[in-house]
Amino acid sequence: MFFFQAFCGTAQDASPPRSAAYPFGHTYWASAADSADFTAFRAGISWVEETLETPTGDYHAVWRIGEHGGVAVVSRGDRTLWRIEGSSLIGLSMHLPFRMADGRRGFMVVHETPCGLICRDTVYYVED
């Protein structure tokens, strides 16, 4: 009986699985600072209802996630400008609006490419 517990029992609870935050494989970062900054960015946003938000204005890409074949690469956005005038987001693959902790609006654009593995690109845009 005790012999069996030595192989199956643990002294501590297991740490939360890494897959809860990044379920599509190992995540690569350019630096440790990027990892910490992206984690703080994600913690500082709150998702809003699409029907309540009518985004307009200038938005810049601040973060980019590429998930391809079980590997995720998170990098800073290239500050690409996206000018939105009312409902111009309608034709995108998927967009999810959010608010930053400082009140700025933003949206996340997700584009999936049909392939045999996971082929997804996500870009976070935040208004100036």
How does this structure look, described?
This protein is mainly beta and 128 residues long. The chain has one domain (23-127). Helix content is 15%, strand content 41%. The protein is built from two helices and eight strands; from the N terminus they run αβαβββββββ. A hairpin with a 2-residue loop joins β3 (57-68) and β4 (71-76). The longest helix has 12 residues, at 32-43.
Give a topology summary.
Blueprint: H1 2-8, E1 26-29, H2 32-43, E2 45-47, E3 57-68, E4 71-76, E5 81-84, E6 94-100, E7 105-112, E8 119-127
Parallel strand pairs: 1-4
Antiparallel strand pairs: 2-6, 3-4, 3-5, 3-8, 6-7, 7-8
Low-confidence stretches: 12-20, 88-92
The best one-word shape is globular
Alpha-carbon distance between the two ends: 64 Å
Number of strands: 8
Strand content: 35-45%
Rg, please?
Answer: 19 Å
How many individual domains?
1
The helix tally amounts to 2
SSE string: HEHEEEEEEE
Structural class: mainly beta
Question: What profile does the largest beta sheet have?
Answer: 8 strands, mixed
As a percent range, the share of helical residues equals 10-25%
Average pLDDT, rounded to a whole number, is: 76
